[in-house]
Fold:
Amino acid sequence: MGRRDPDVRAPPPLSSRSDGMAQKLLIVESPTKARTFQKYLGRGYVIKASKGHVVDLPKSKLGIDLDNGFAPQYVTIRGKGKVIKELEQAARKADEVLLATDPDREGEAIAWHLKQHLERRQPNIHRILLNEITQEAIAEAVKQPGEVDLRKVEAQQARRVLDRLVGYQISPLLWKIFFYGLSAGRVQSVALRLIVEREAERRRFAREEYWSLRAEFRGDAGEPFEGKLVKWRGEEPRLADLAAARTLLAALGVEPAALAGASAEALAGGSLALPVGTTPAYRVVSVERKQRRRSPEPPYITSTLQRDASSKLGFTARRTMMLAQQLYEGIELGAEGAVGLITYMRTDSTRVAEGARAEHHDWVRRHFGEDYLPAQARRHKVKAGAQDAHEAIRPTSVARAPESLRGHLTKDQLAVYRLIWQRFLASLMADARFEATGVDVAAGDAVFRATGNRLLFDGYRRAFGAARGTAADENGNGDGERLLPAIAEGERLQAALLPRQHFTEPPPRYSESSLIKELEERGIGRPSTYASIVGTIQGRDYLTLDESRRFQPTELGESVWKVLAEGFPKLFEVGFTARMEAELDKVEEGAEPWTEVVGHLYTPMRKALDAVEKDTSSLREAIREATEERCPKCGRPMIKTWGRNGRFLACSGYPECRSSRPLEAPTVAGDQRCGECGAEMMVRVGRFGRFAACSRYPDCKGTAPLEVGVGCPRESCSGQLVEKRSKRGRTFYGCNRYPDCDFASWSRPVPAPCPDCGGLVVEKATKAKGSFQQCTVCKLEIPE
Structure:
């Protein structure tokens, strides 16, 4: 294991208790969790929080002994010395220490490090595991204390060491080639690769035109229904262009005059209904009815919860996990006190405890009836490699329906809890049953198909409409029925044809939800890491979000990936990363020593790093882009390259010729004037973002934050709003009189005040509404 923190000193002798009453010290990670435990355990227990990890690798150096089996050199985290001291004092007074940290690798590592610090104060230290923080689970756990799982600790340590080796040894290479502050990561760089390669696919994609054909039918009953052309002359129809569509429409009975009078635009739109004549006849050739079943999805695991919260609630993975953590650790429920509402949220297992299964079935019987339970208990398949000691994410009590918690949870907490509760409730219920109807209509060599869907029994779907007493699908969209009128085989139909033009679409960019799904399917990352992987690459300038909130790589992101791909083709290969994840899992199983697994990655990485550090010219060449512009000093071609302030144009004759200039000519910074000499200011870009610089540079070196032309809206403040960047690199707008005035806005202010109330107006954009402006006071929305 890692070295003991050098700050740990030999303890004084154990003190004896004077009150004669046995006392146990129980340690958890967070104060919230501590309060929940205290409520259930009461007297005889002292509950303390470690507030996360107490030791870690040092920030200022690698912190790994490469000559001694990759031994990590842990140090006390800044600010945690006081926490450790308090825990040591409490341990001396206790008769036993129980480590109740989270039941995953990180929790096991925290428990191990706490044990290393405390065992000389109190050697009677045990580990307890809980998947949920309820009275029953806590009572059971304290009755069955165990030991820290060293395999799990080593698995966490191997990941931590690998991540440090990659991050601390490859990131400096990026600093040399680009600028300080960039980072590479064992898994984050593979995620970046997926995003960059998807963008390259989109650029290579060539759109192709095609047409589809629908028909609107009416039978003897007079009710209209629609069908789609599915066969033409015995094969799948292929309509490549307008000419092919016109030819087919004529063959299917559309009058020549109607075709001639229809413009290309009208035909392409999909709403122009063209009536057909008497030839060919449109007849029903088959009516088929089948009963179909649909089974519920399994209860949530980490990745599926994150994906659903992203697509249905618009939450980032990090926000989802933060909210789930709050629900797990305990929420104050009035007279009940703090109650853990869900099971542990970092899991890849769909297993459900038998007690929870029994409570679920009892609840369904009482509220919906016996018919809503399957004849045989439903057991969802657990994927290979899942940690089946964990459970799925579920409510600790299905009896706590979401609406009963409305007064105790925030809006976002309630939204996440509702997702978890409904998904779990549905997961063990009976199948939904439908009657599916298929009608084939023939017209000459063409076959159209119409489909209908009638819900016979809502089954598990009732869980999603339970609050309304109706059936709904997983997205809450109602019964989803599509009924066809009564139709008989051989019946002749009236028809009108509706052509429509389409174009093939490139593969979509990754959303946060689809990226997590891709990582999971490829075996990259684990439940505890998905949120941090996505959050890390979002926190860099490697990506932006497009108008649909999907990941689009920046020039910097693409260039960084080019360098990593050129210098380390194997290290950041998707298959290699997945194999490394599988090897790391074997450490936890005890199948491989952790040092060997680390060596499998480190040896080829070090070899590649030694090679590129000797000569970085090929890496620099990979990110240079030729231009047609000539150097004004020597006439050589100019190239696009990177510097500490971003991309710029430089002479290809460097270092003989050092001519360079910004990639784009600087623009005037509105009416802003230099505070030093009064000259106009220009917009420049530096390592901390955009700023205003004097147009007389280098004669005058005056600079200032970039004003946006809007006065501070705070009453009695005479400041101007300026563009700023947060510590995480995100642009915001604040008063230039800070800290005297702390006004700030994430949204860009616009000069014109609100026409209704005169308040500050800012730019907004949503997927549903697009771009618009909104008053910050009265919330009036103003179209752009």
